[in-house]
Automatic annotation (TrEMBL):
Matching InterPro entries: DDH_dom (IPR001667), DHH_sf (IPR038763), DHHA2 (IPR004097), DHHA2_dom_sf (IPR038222)
Gene behind the chain: PRUNE
Recorded GO MF terms: exopolyphosphatase activity; metal ion binding
Name the UniProt record assigns to this protein: Protein prune homolog
Superkingdom field: Eukaryota
PANTHER family: BNIP - RELATED (PTHR12112), EG:152A3.5 PROTEIN (FBGN0003116_PN PROTEIN) (PTHR12112:SF39)
Gene Ontology CC terms: cytoplasm
Organism: Hydra vulgaris (Hydra)
UniProt keyword Manganese present: yes
Amino acid sequence: KMLQPSGFLDFLKSSKLNISKDANLHFVVGNESADLDSIVCSLVYAYYMSSNPNEESFVALLPMYREDFELCFEASALCKKFDITTENMVFIDDICINSLNNFKLTLVDHNYETLLQNIENKVVDIIDHHHDALHHINAKRNIKMVGSCCTLIAEIIYYNKREFFESKPVSEFLLAGILNDTVNLDLHNGRTTELDVFMSEVLLGYTELDKDDYFLLLKTAQSEMFKMSTRGILRKDYKLVSNAEPQIGISSIMLQSETFISRTDFYASCIDFMTIKSLDVIIIMFLHCENNVAINRDILVFSLNGDHLNKVTSYLQTQTNLELVYKELPANLKQNASYFSHNINCSRKIVLPLLYDIFKK
């Protein structure tokens, strides 16, 4: 039978009720940067799993605070289209996960959970497109190096319950995740694979959307970022590298680096953000696009501790595939930062696993 948008909305509303019953809960959780790919994967996969006969109550758990959802401009725009409000979703501040009786976790769009504590034996399933950090070793794994994790969710649905794509939120959400992560299926960025292209074509067949117009809509939503505070932009797409010393975090920013680091409050905002996140080092990765094409990538390492700054900088310089090229810093940052342009195909997905190795040195 045809799955209507209301089916998706009803599922979201009922999963909130299921939490209060605390019986056989199975959370589907994305990564802590809570980008579009992560949000879509957890919402759609939890909905898909709940449609299969089973004893479990599937809940999409968004690993962010409710108030931060407004920073997810693309996801907010999609939700608005289908009358989904934050009231219909479950956020990290809605539950105290360790006080629940028995629950399971499926990780989507990451394979190493850093935000939720004491859950090592709770992770039963992993669907991801990042380098396998080999945690949660007993979990079932579906890890493929494709452009978007939404591609893997779409592939599962395609081979098991294709009629599920008739639900407009399902097909449009998944398509948005794929187009966003692959920069509109750009074949020159080292990320887009044949599977991303194939699943996009399948999904487009279930929607009345034009691929390029839809991508432009996502980009327009993203441009809201220019109006945000500096600290808000650092917070928008952030990941903790590891809980080891020194504490390192990485923020990804879709802006031209020169414009951002020349903001008058940049220095103070970095210190402020690092204090809130208890960081020793913040790495900021910039991707600058024009006309939907990636033009260049820059990376800035910032720390108030000279030893930490030198350690991380010199370690990154040993990674030849990054192809770092030194860039001149504004005078007020010279003491506390290093700044480079780098290989356009090296996204955070490539850089993050490299940083795990710093701690082994």
